[in-house]
Specification:
Oligomer: single chain
Mean pLDDT: 88
Distance between the termini: 33 Å
Largest sheet: none
Low-confidence stretches: 10-14
Number of strands: 0
């Protein structure tokens, strides 16, 4: 699932490390939102009960994705603050039972290994950005 394997070094250099990490975070949020949306749809069709968090998950993922994209477009916050917000988004995703969504919908969701690698890269970036400002 890690797209960095298929990207060339030139593509990564052009994007910049924080932009690349942000795009990977956005992709993970969008994948989870899609799976959550389909999960709710299937549960409602089957007339099964949903808890409030299940009903809100797609919207929460979409809201986080929108804010991350806006931060990247505006470049309003410093690099360390943007990295910290992206880290918060990855932590949010790690707290979700994405496997339940994947099994129920067969929609690809980011796996733990991918999210842990992303979190590690963002942690390193945030630490480096904080020391160079």
């Amino acid at each position: 699932m890690d797209n960095s394997i298929t990207q060339t070094a030139q593509q990564r250099e052009t994007l910049g490390p924080l932009t690349e990490l942000g795009m990977r975070t956005l992709r993970a949020l969008c994948m989870t939102a899609e799976a959550a949306s389909r999960y709710v749809e299937r549960q409602l069709r089957a007339e099964k009960e949903l808890d409030p968090l299940e009903l809100e998950l797609a919207g929460r993922c979409a809201s986080r994705a929108r804010h991350a994209a806006q931060d990247a477009m505006n470049n309003a916050a410093g690099s360390d603050k943007r990295a910290q917000r992206l880290l918060d988004d990855v932590s949010f995703l790690l707290a979700i039972n994405r496997e339940k969504l994947r099994r129920a919908t067969r929609v690809e969701v980011p796996d733990n290994a991918h999210l842990h690698l992303l979190r590690d890269a963002l942690t390193k970036y945030a630490a480096l950005a904080a020391t160079t400002r």
